[in-house]
Structure of (4Fe-4S) protein:
Amino acid sequence: MSGPVPLGMPAFPDAAAVSTRDARLRATLRHATRTIRAKRGAAVAELDDWRQLRAAAAAVKDRTLRHLDHHLVRLEERVTAAGGTVHWAADADEANRIVTALVRETGEREVLKVKSMTTQETGLNAALAEAGVRAYETDLAELIVQLGDDLPSHLLVPAIHRGRSEIRGIFRDRMADWGRPAPAGLTDRPADLAEAARLHLREKFLRARVAVSGANFMVAETGTLVVVESEGNGRMCLTLPETLISVVGIEKVVPTWRDLEVYLQLLPRSSTAERMNPYTSMWTGTTDGDGPRAFHLVLLDNGRTDTLADAVGRQVLRCIRCSACLNVCPVYERAGGHAYGSPYPGPIGAVLTPQLRGTASALEESLPFASSLCGACYEVCPVAIDIPEVLLHLRERVAEGGEATVRGVRAVVRPARRHALERGLMAAAGLTLQHPGALRSGQRLAARLRRLRPRRLPGPGRAWTDSRDLPEVPEESFRDWWARTRGGASS
């Protein structure tokens, strides 16, 4: 099972109802996302073959996923031959146990971390803390989130919901609890905040003997792992410690270096609007006198093979975590990332989280409905994930139930109880539409009673009209208008 849902996490509509009333949050997100997507648009426009690259990236991922078992075995062989050790984790708990045991074997009580969505997914920091090991985030935004006892709200900029004055306050109040305190007289100038973080982290880089990382890609051809980042903290974590533990989802594998070339053109432009990442770190096993002396790769499933078994939903495993879909999503821009209750917010989270976790709670059931289906996410996705298609597919599963793969076994998913009334209304509507006479009579009756139209629906319908206006009832139906103006029969 995926990492636990935060205690008390409500369904998306309830969480969004709170966050959308935060005017400061909405203003911050609006400015940030619009700035990022404008820069991305300019960077993408520089490439005449962007659409061909996008199609190639989707094709490579699909081909890889069809033969995922073969490529993972090949990856394991190459990593092992290069001096690394490969561990297989079926779920979040197993991954956390493996990492905790590896850290304990070193005798260390602190680890550095390179930003990793996968360890956010498994809840690794909490698991290490229970074992008496303190994990230090080294990415600037992740550091802000950690010091503020907060949760990430964006794939690329986890602290996007924080303003500069808030960050200054967090650094001033909390840095001393985690190491070197913030400089006296710290201002909220970005350069001063970055320098405070740099001084705080430098001593950790120099003394840490264990690091935990994720990876953007794994090349099966040579057993090479790849991390792309913008700050240099990744390079420090990947080279200075004596032991490196990388926790990576099994879908991150690509067969060859030639395949990797495609993604290294797409990812930086889609995420940071750069032609290439400032730091692209690659490592293959261990090398005497260069980098960590011990390397462990933890390959995480945690619902991914279940997702792979879904002919429609498996396309989400193409995701390269660029965050482009978040930056164009009108729902994310207004609700923010925390409303999604997952390390994966925005459109990709709305389709990925319910598949990794299953629809076992009200939160996961609600996520496929956290979209206007405008299609902007699909248009910007560099690997052509048709997120609206998957959203509709998952909505059908929530509303109607049906077969799904759960931990490798085909099971029947029961429809959500809270949609029983909706299903009844849809059945009644379907019956009416099958009988034109009943439909015509209903339309004429509604036209006669249009002045009695309520502004809000009663009972369960109230939730629908809390955020929508009921449409006006016309004086005449289209069928009757056609019959009157064209002289045809209204039937």
